[in-house]
Amino acid sequence: MFSSSDIHTVTDFSRKPAEHIKRLTRTKRPEILTVNGKAAVVVQDAETYEKMAELADYAESIINIRKALTEKGRSIAEFATEFESKHGIKR
Questions:
Q1: 30 and which of 20, 44, 49, 59 could share a cystine (Cβ 3.0–4.6 Å)?
Q2: Could you tell me the residue range of the domain that residue 31 belongs to?
Q3: DSSP per position, 43-78
Q4: Is the residue at 91 inside a domain?
């Protein structure tokens, strides 16, 4: 996901923010900013962040639905078997 061209120092970012922002907007790739050689923060353009946040929300809703189905209901396999049997569907 990350390449060495995506890793920059915080100092470099603070000295040339416009250059970094142009690159972030153009490539849509996040940058890892380092402090003393260690990853400190990740920055990315707003459009890509919004898409990532939407995907995270979607994934969380799927997890919640699966959890609700297993805790409060029956498994999808059970439902499918019963439904197919009730409606004469053969696999």
A1: 44
A2: 4-44
A3: E--HHHHHHHHHHHHHHHHHHHHHHHHHHHS--HHH
A4: no
Residues 39 and 14 in one domain: yes
Tell me if residue 3 falls in helix, strand or coil: coil
CA 27 and chain centroid, separation: 17
The residue with tokens 């439902």 is 79
Within-domain flag for 69? yes
Q: How far apart are CA 59 and CA 66, in angstroms?
A: 11
pTM for the whole structure: 0.65
Q: Count the alpha carbons within 13 Å of 59 in the hemisphere toward its beta carbon.
A: 6
- CB 89, CB 83: distance < 8 Å: yes
> Are 52 and 29 spatial neighbours (Cβ–Cβ below 8 Å)?
no
State CA 62 to chain mean position distance: 13
Query: 27 in helix, strand or coil?
Result: helix
21, amino acid identity: I
